[in-house]
Amino acid sequence: MNKDIVVKAHGVKKNYDNSYALNGIDLEVTSGQILGFLGPNGAGKSTFLQSVLGLINTEGNLEVLGLDPRKDRHKLLKEVCSITDVAVLPKWMTVDQILQYVDGVHPGFDLQKCHSILSKTNIKRSSQVKILSRGMVVQLHLSIVMAINARLLVLDEPTLGLDLVYRKEFYSQLIEDYYDGEKTILISTHQVEEIEGVLSDAVFMNQGRIVMQDSIESINKKFLELRPNRDSLERAKSLRPIHQRVELGREVLLFEDTEHEKLSDLGEVRPPFIADLFMAIMDKTKNGDNA
């Protein structure tokens, strides 16, 4: 089945004070993808997501749902929702007042669905936003977004500063109550280990560039981690791993495009966690290798 192209970027650049925050981004995102943008601070993740939302001008070609996000932002916002780490809601309003306001201004908002989602939380509709905890404000924001029939959801560090319980609830609710297999979600986060079970695809960014992009399924086939037996360590190293580290006193070797059978006799083999692969790719990039 052919998927619709949701985001299409070619040669996208953004320059701040003679330094590129984005330096030639080429990317195509199709409907149904849950795409994670991973990278250190200053990698360009938030800048790219802001450009998708039409918040900044960029060089190059960028289309979101077939629209120019800057010129057609009013049309785009009917189909796109977002949550960021700096998202705020009016503190003087009650939860009910906010819901009534959104119901009045957004044609795609389903008030009853939002009530249903909120009923699963501890948020009281009579409460003012100013008395809600940060976690509750994010839950409220998510409840509103999930009740909007948008084709694209952009999440830029949505759980930054939240404790572990709220972070887990956030992603669980996102998948259970929002994602339907057709909607597209773009996520930027530092909590890589918490979202890898959610993602269908990943983009690794560094210094304004994409250093790797692939589906999680393909990554799991392409990369393997080996924890070699003590008497197999030298043989394992002779197979030219692309990265190695020490974990709890034990060597861990990362291989690319190496057959499982070649490694299985040498020790414990499994696909790497995305967080570990991310660190390995960043190390390779830092050392000047091609990722």
Q: What number of structural domains do the residues give?
A: 2
**How do the helices and strands follow one another from N- to C-terminus?**
EEEHEHEHHHEHEHEEHEHEEHEH
- Assign the CATH topology of the largest domain: Rossmann fold
Strand adjacency order, main sheet: 5-6-7-3-8-9
Name the poorly predicted regions.
none
| Helicity, as a percent range | 25-40%
- Give the full name of the CATH homologous superfamily of the largest domain: P-loop containing nucleotide triphosphate hydrolases
Q: Given the structure, what is the number of helices?
A: 11
SS-derived structural category: alpha/beta
Strand share of the residues?
25-35%
CATH class membership of the largest domain: Alpha Beta
Task: Assign an overall shape.
Answer: globular
CATH architecture of the largest domain: 3-Layer(aba) Sandwich
Question: What is the total tally of β strands?
Answer: 13
Reported for the largest beta sheet, the result is:
6 strands, mixed
Distance between the ends:
31 Å
Average pLDDT for all residues: 89
Radius of gyration: 21 Å
